[in-house]
């Protein structure tokens, strides 16, 4: 599997800014993207129709969504359905990002429904998991990751494959703080996620990609991406500028 180098633009940029960043990014990567790397950009819904065509014209690049509601269609004011994302050229979607869990109050059960529904609708899903600093200090990293993985993947046995599912380990204390997890912490958490994936998805778990996220920058990406069981990165702040994200993609 290719390493998945993913950008999460969160709630930043206008349509014009997003389109310009995407165009600059594909320009910087043109002819330089290694065969074993894949690029994904997850912008706000508002600019998906402008950004997705720019990325999908470039081999190895695609667009994704940061969120959706797990239903086909209906009376869900303010929500977006997977079909509507596919219609805009989205290939992937995130579920369970820490900001959705901790700022917007999403629980494990809803996150699990999103993963199941998204896969069923034809989206490739990235399930985000990770502990808070309090949970880490209390020695609960594995308990938290186990619960988030069990609930997040409850409905996907038989549907999830190494091609349509990835997991992003993003320790909450490392997101947007500049405090990156050290190699030992990443290795330990990713080994645990791998073990759990193999237990939950016996035929596919060994090859489902595990991404690291949390203050990934051009100067630490090269080390992180080469650690055991690190099959990609999910980048927030450092993905907002094409120059910085392209350095991460090529690190
Ligand atoms: P960060 O965000 O790179 O700004 O820490 C990562 C994420 O939220 O996915």
Write structural notes for this entry:
This protein has an eight-stranded parallel barrel with strand order 1-2-3-4-5-6-7-8, surrounded by six helices. 46% of the residues are buried. Helix 5 (108-121) crosses helix 7 (141-152). The chain has ten helices and eight strands. Strand 7, helix 9 (218-225) and strand 8 (232-235) form a beta-alpha-beta unit. The chain has a single domain (3-249), classed as Aldolase class I (TIM Barrel, Alpha-Beta Barrel), CATH 3.20.20.70. By secondary structure, the chain is α/β, with parallel strands linked by helices. The longest helix has 18 residues, at 183-200. Helices cover 40% and strands 17% of the residues. The mean pLDDT is 97. The chain binds 2-phosphoglycolic acid. 2-phosphoglycolic acid (PGA) binds next to strand 8.
SSE layout and pairing:
Elements: E1 3-8, H1 15-29, E2 37-42, H2 48-56, E3 61-65, H3 82-87, E4 90-95, H4 98-102, H5 108-121, E5 124-129, H6 133-137, H7 141-152, E6 165-169, H8 183-200, E7 209-213, H9 218-225, E8 232-235, H10 242-249
Helix pairs in contact: 1-2, 1-10, 5-7, 7-8, 9-10
Bound molecules: 2-phosphoglycolic acid
CATH architecture: Alpha-Beta Barrel
Based on helices, strands and strand pairing, what is the structural class?
Answer: alpha/beta
Tertiary shape? globular
**How helix-rich are the residues, as a percent range?**
25-40%
User: CATH class, please?
Assistant: Alpha Beta
**Which stretches are low in confidence, meaning pLDDT under 50 for 5 or more residues running?**
none
Average pLDDT reading: 97
CATH-defined superfamily: Aldolase class I
Strand composition percent: 15-25%
How many discrete domains? 1
Q: What is the number of E strands?
A: 8
Radius of gyration: 17 Å
- Largest sheet: number of strands, sense, barrel closure: 8 strands, parallel, barrel
Order of helices and strands: EHEHEHEHHEHHEHEHEH
Strand order across the largest sheet: 1-2-3-4-5-6-7-8
Number of helices: 10
